[in-house]
Design a protein that fits this description.
Blueprint: E1 5-16, E2 19-31, E3 36-40, H1 47-55, E4 63-71, E5 74-75, H2 81-87, E6 92-95, H3 99-102, H4 109-120, H5 125-138, H6 144-147, H7 157-169, E7 175-179, H8 187-204, E8 207-212, H9 215-221, E9 224-229, E10 232-238, H10 239-244, H11 249-256, H12 297-301, E11 307-310, E12 313-315, H13 320-335
Parallel strand pairs: 3-8, 3-9, 6-7, 7-8
Antiparallel strand pairs: 1-2, 1-4, 4-5, 9-10, 10-12, 11-12
Helix pairs in contact: 4-5, 4-7, 5-7, 7-8
């Protein structure tokens, strides 16, 4: 049986003034119907570029794709743009991270939702407005009939994000890509937006690719997690497995960076040393080696493969078993 979405050895190259850079380098993962997959990592690791490649939003002469993006068993990288336009917004939709700049300021909210319906569905304008009204009601916008005729500047940031979700879901897509949809919002609004996404996931049984740097959000709504670093997948596991037993040193560093609820407030927060290398100067060995406390000569000289540990837990590290053993020994001596 085909996965809803399957990325197979996907590479994304950009041609720049300094030469060709590879922003995404051979990533593979899948999303099932009804599943929420979290994709996490620092800024610049390739999360958003991967998401945009699925919809081919960066399609121009400076972008080159390799590998496959299979949606419902069909490689959508090989289909013409005319067919891709029918998929985009109808079968696959996306919610962007900045609601302030994602809506057109000169069109009403209703017109922007209706445009998506009329583009993909054979319905009258009146039916399209009814669908827009119902969708605004579903995403929790008060007085939706009034909001249909308002402009983006008349809405708060949280309301705009709800409108973006309404636009993305009005055609009931099979796959929703949410690219850090709560980043620009305050904490209470974030919680409301996440609740809407979870509710829509249950009602429509759609797959969701949820891109974020917030591990707290991942633990709350996702079923599986893909951890990316400098254009590669470095770890993939179920949420429970990743939080109970992270294997890659980078994932361990991300976990340690989460502020504890209790404890000594005077202690400094843990930080991963160093910075992410430039795409113009990618290390030949492990890409995390320059920042890893466990790195040795092998790590610097040879890139590790993404290996399966157990229960579909995959990790890209030469020494993850030794690191795991050392960490257990440390914890055992600490708590005795």
């Amino acid at each position: 049986m085909d996965h809803l979405l399957e990325l197979s050895d996907l590479k994304i190259h950009f041609h720049t003034e300094k030469g060709r850079v590879t922003a995404v380098d051979g990533i593979s993962f899948n999303i099932e119907q009804g599943e929420i997959l979290g994709v996490v990592g620092e800024s610049g690791c390739g999360k958003s570029v991967t998401a945009q490649s699925i919809l081919q939003l960066g399609e121009n002469e400076n972008v080159q794709y390799e590998g496959e993006i299979n949606f419902k068993g069909k490689n959508i990288l090989s289909i013409p743009q005319s067919k891709m336009q029918k998929i985009r917004g109808n079968d696959i939709s996306m919610v962007f991270q900045d609601p302030m700049s994602s809506l057109n300021p000169v069109y009403t909210i209703g017109d922007q939702i209706v445009e998506s319906v009329l583009l993909h569905q054979n319905v009258s304008r009146r039916e399209a407005y009814n669908k827009a009204f119902e969708m605004l009601k579903s995403v929790g916008i008060p007085d939706p009939k009034k909001r249909l005729y308002e402009y983006p500047h008349q809405l708060s940031g949280g309301m705009k994000q709800r409108v973006l979700i309404a636009i993305a879901l009005v055609c009931k897509p099979d796959l929703l890509i949410a690219d850090e949809p709560t980043t620009a919002l305050d904490v209470t609004i974030q919680a409301q937006i996440l609740e809407i996404i979870i509710q829509m996931n249950r009602e429509l049984d759609m797959g969701i690719m949820f891109i974020t740097h917030d591990l707290g959000v991942v633990s709350e709504i996702c079923t599986r997690v893909v951890v990316m670093y400098l254009g590669q997948v470095v770890e993939e596991a179920s949420v429970n497995e990743l939080f109970s037993q992270p294997l890659h040193p980078y994932t361990r560093g991300l976990m340690k960076s989460i502020p504890p609820i209790e404890g000594d407030r005077s202690q400094k927060l843990y930080t991963i040393k160093g910075t992410v290398p430039s795409l113009n100067d990618i290390p030949k060995g492990c890409r995390f080696a320059s920042r890893c406390p466990y790195a040795d000569k092998l790590c610097i000289e040879k890139m590790p493969e993404l290996r399966k540990d157990q229960d579909n837990h995959r990790v890209r590290c030469w020494h993850y078993e030794e690191i795991q053993k050392k960490e257990r020994e440390y914890e055992h001596t600490t708590f005795e």
